[in-house]
Design a protein that fits this description.
5-stranded mixed β-barrel; flat; alpha+beta; 3-stranded antiparallel sheet
């Protein structure tokens, strides 16, 4: 069962090591506005900027081309860097790529590798903390959207989503609907009904 919690709300009557929570007087409290998953003892923030983490797969935009490589806008207060020697291709300003974060140092310099160009599609941005809801358990939500819209969809952990082909407009509308209703229960069933209704029109 999940429920909405506010900062300072009790989530466990014993001390528990939970991300986005703090311990006080032997009890555990949420430090953010979020969803508390009681079964798995975790707090999922409902808002917040993307904070890069090692091994995250992101969707980035080339915003500076240098001799040594590329500065990448990763939809974060911090910028990514892709070394020219770690890239198999040459990119130009404005190119959209997917890449993996291999290192985040103590001053939040973000190094990327495994870049792949994402061409000809469109990009939408949602709150990064809603990305798990767009993907769903075992990719269930994402697979359902792909199947209904016949679109190719690549989801970045940083809140950027690339969509190409099929009914891309419906795919984008559905993802934005998931973002808007991410805090509600019965979301999968509602999205399934929404897609069936839209596709049958």
């Amino acid at each position: 069962m999940t429920r909405i919690v506010v900062p300072g709300e009790l989530v466990a009557s014993s001390p528990q090591r939970i991300e986005f929570a703090f311990i006080e007087n032997g009890k555990t409290y949420s430090s953010v506005l979020g969803l508390f998953d009681e079964a798995n003892l975790r707090v999922i923030p409902l808002e917040g900027a993307y904070m890069p983490a090692q091994y995250d797969i992101i969707v980035g935009i080339i915003n500076e081309v240098k001799f040594a490589g590329y500065n990448i806008d990763i939809n974060s207060p911090y910028k990514g860097f892709l070394s020219a020697k770690d890239s198999r291709y040459e990119y130009k300003l404005g190119d959209v790529i997917s890449a993996k974060i291999v290192e985040v140092d103590e001053v939040k310099s973000v190094n990327l590798e495994g870049a792949r160009a994402l061409r000809d599609g469109e990009i939408i941005e949602i709150s990064p903390v809603k990305i798990p809801r767009v993907i769903g358990k075992k990719n269930s939500m994402l697979d359902m959207i792909k199947e209904a819209t016949k679109s190719e969809i690549f989801v970045g952990k940083n809140g950027r989503i690339w969509i190409q082909g099929g009914n891309s407009a419906l795919a984008a509308r559905t993802i934005l609907k998931v973002e808007k209703e991410a805090h509600t229960t019965g979301l999968t069933e509602r999205i399934s009904a929404f897609l069936k209704d839209e596709v049958s029109r």
